[in-house]
UniProtKB/TrEMBL annotation:
This is Endonuclease III. It comes from Butyrivibrio fibrisolvens DSM 3071. Pfam families: HHH (PF00633), HhH-GPD (PF00730). One of its GO terms (biological process) is base-excision repair, AP site formation. Keywords: 4Fe-4S, DNA damage, DNA repair, DNA-binding, Endonuclease, Glycosidase, Hydrolase, Iron, Iron-sulfur, Lyase, Metal-binding, Nuclease. The keyword Hydrolase applies. HAMAP family: Nth. The keyword Signal does not apply. [4Fe-4S] cluster binds at residues 194, 201, 204, 210. PANTHER family: A/G-SPECIFIC ADENINE GLYCOSYLASE/ENDONUCLEASE III (PTHR10359), ENDONUCLEASE III (PTHR10359:SF18). Belongs to the Nth/MutY family. It comes from the Bacteria. InterPro entries: DNA_glycosylase (IPR011257), HhH-GPD_domain (IPR003265), HhH_base_excis_C (IPR023170), HhH_motif (IPR000445), Nth (IPR005759).
Length: 216
């Protein structure tokens, strides 16, 4: 657990300011979608897969299965074939069908809003649930993926590798209005500059305030 010292809070303020200046403050998920259900399916597919790859698959997928009921009654082999180019397609096909079936049986075919309801769906953890809450319902939420976990630790905002602990650490120090966009901004930073394992500190716009910077 990170203590909310003056130094940490000053760093939080400056990091949020620079992220907004660099990437803008009006940011949403990179996953293409037209409604809550499409985003839910796309986010399940995105586990251990790039958004770019998911966005290549979902147009044909949603044309083939346009409704919750279509996914709920899908033949698993046919669905696996449709998402074959995405990793872990066996498990994802099973979860997607189970998710759609539970949406029909428990939620009237609608995507629920609360973290408890969302995480009751097959294949939906806190990360996926927070993507839905933040991007669809605009409920303040923090999505912790591998980039957010790594970079938040490098910035001194958490000292944990547990995504749930990281989420709670960030909720304590980040301004609530930054919660939704922090993930998108950090993903872009992680893909372009603050990479694992080798961060490009010499190219980073936060090198002077980052406690993990290697060029000081």
């Amino acid at each position: 657990m990170i203590r909310k010292t003056k130094a940490v809070m000053n760093r939080v303020t400056e990091v949020c300011k620079r992220l907004d200046e660099q990437y803008g403050s009006d940011m949403r998920t990179y996953l293409d979608h037209r409604n809550a259900f499409e985003l839910l399916i796309a986010t399940i597919l995105s586990a251990q897969c790039t958004d770019k790859r998911v966005n290549m698959v979902t147009p044909d997928l949603f044309a083939k299965y346009p409704t919750v009921h279509d996914f709920a009654t899908a033949d698993i082999k046919e669905l696996e074939k449709a998402i074959h180019s995405i990793g872990f397609y066996h498990a994802k096909a099973k979860n997607i069908i189970g998710c759609a079936q539970k949406l029909e049986s428990d939620f009237g075919g609608e995507v629920p809003r609360t973290i408890e309801e969302l995480t009751s769906l097959p294949g939906v953890g806190r990360k996926t649930a927070n993507v839905i809450r933040g991007n669809i319902y605009e409920d303040p939420s923090i999505v912790v993926d591998t980039h957010v976990k790594r970079i938040s630790k490098r910035l001194g905002f958490t000292n944990s590798d547990d995504p749930v602990v990281v989420e709670h650490d960030l909720m304590k120090i980040l301004p609530k209005e930054n919660w939704i966009r922090y993930n998108i901004q950090i993903i872009y930073l992680g893909r372009t500059i603050c990479k694992a394992p080798n961060a490009k500190c010499s190219e980073c716009f936060m090198s002077d305030i980052c406690p993990s910077c290697k060029i000081k």
